[in-house]
Every structure is written in structure tokens, then in C-alpha cells.
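Subject: Sanity check before I submit

Could someone independently write out the C-alpha cells for this chain? I want to compare against mine line by line before I put it in a report. The sequence has 178 residues.
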Amino acid sequence: MLDFFRIFTIFLIFLLNFPQNESKIVKFTKLECKDFDKSLIAFKLCQLKAVGRNRIAMQVQGDLKQPLNDGLLINVELFRKSHDFRPFLYNDTMEFCGFIKNPNRYMFWKILVQEMIKYTNLNHTCPYEDELVVKDLILDDSMLKALPFPSNDYMVQVKALQQNDIKAEMKMFIVIIE
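---
Independent answer below. Compare away.
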């Protein structure tokens, strides 16, 4: 009987000292879109909109001047702030249509994209015509449950490349606060 109380007491102490599952604040802080080659895409809208306390919605609209098919490469890189933004963990170049069709090769980006794709018109495979849209994308801590990042400022940089020439670039600045 004494062993039961001892085990029960240890269990209670463990539960009381176990870190609580506090939610984090995850939000956009800045957004930059550059269309270097307007014969591929021209950004009509690239903005963040405050919709509540610690809730920032991303709005992006880009007119496609030609259909997006196989051959468009995207380079996606994650940066973390340490005095300035420095590369952090991931820098991948992938064929855009191949990634949308089968993202399993790039698990980190797949986890992020599958949470965010419902806010875009990227819900089918190539070709993409007319426009690319991101509407009311609001980050929250549930999107990062599979990817526990520490508090810090981050930047995700996405470059669209054709024939080793940068056609467009988007930089998303994000803060994570515990």
C-alpha cells in the first residue's frame, strides 16, 4: 500500500511540473512581392491586413501572363533572425508542378503547404492559368504543431526561376512568440 502512495505522489508531482500546452502567437509581420519578369507574373496585390489582435491575414494576387506548366523551379529557403536574417535548416529547389503533384520528397515544406493550401487556388495540379491567389491566410500555432519552432523572427523566401533566371520573389516575415 505504501508503494502505491509513493508512485501516486510521484505521478502527481510529475503532472504538476509538466509544461502546460500554452499556445504560441504566430503571425506575419511583413510581406514583400517582386515580379522581375512581368511576362510570367504581375502582382496586383501583396499585402497584410490586421483582422484582430495578433491576427494578420495575407492577401496576394498575381496575374499569370502565361500558363504555369512543368519547368518552373521554385527555391524555398527558411531564415532565422540573429542580428540579421541568416539561413536556417532548409534551402530546397524543386520543380513547382512536381511538388504540387507529389510533395512527399520535401516533407518540411509539405507540412507547411498542406496547412496553407486551403487559402489558395493551388488546390489542383498544373497547369495554372489566369491568376494565383492567396486569400485571408492567417497563421496560428496549430499550423506548426508538427514543426515545433522556438520563439524568434523567421523569413520564408520563395523564388520562381526559369532557365536560371529569377522571375519572381516573395518574402514572408513571421514571428513566433511563446
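---
OP: Matches mine. For the report I'm noting this point. The chain has one domain: 23-177.
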